[in-house]
Amino acid sequence: MPYVTRTDDVFTLLLGDEGVELSEANPENRFSPDWIDAVHARLDEIEAQAAGAPAALVVTATGKFFSNGLDVMYILANFGELPAYLDRAHTVFSRLLTFPMTTVAAINGHAFGAGAMLALSCDFAVMREDRGFFCLPEVSLKMGFTEGMASLLRSRLPYQTAVESMTTGRRYGGAEAVAAGIVQATASEADLVAEATSRAAANAAADGPTLNKIKNDLHAPLLTALAVPTPTDVKFG
Asked: How many domains does the chain have?
């Protein structure tokens, strides 16, 4: 399950299991219900530990995957719960979009679907230069986007990049993601977390409540869309 480390003023939320490169139960860091709950719990802990002191957050993982998105096996086994499950996934995006400190995604590997949206929910993103893709494969999977997800992508991507990524399922490597305006920089595997940490630390002194208000105001239409309940007739596959 996700866990937290800390270097000076910068917390790091790692999306997998501590002590192993890939989680045995969830090796692709998919949005299982338990994983979603754990992410919220770790973010609660970070806020409590920061307690008004200078702080910033890096979100990353280890191994081949940053996050491979929705938990397809859970969905297929619990199809009647799909609307509630998607609503719960939306809360992760909203939580990061308004988190009361600067957030930087360090995309260490594949970021697909909801995993790509997770990265976009951070203020900034740095991607590994030599491995891993940013991809929205929903069109190939015959899945639509929820209102909240579509709004997130429209809000956080340059418009033509949103068109291309959402309608073609293109896979963007690190350099391509920078050129498309998806991420702000790339780094080597060895330097990725350090680069993200440096970027986060540069704004660690920003006041948390002030940042929270600015982010709520900045993302107000997007947050409204993410709060819209998913229709009961939502399609999957």
From this structure: 1
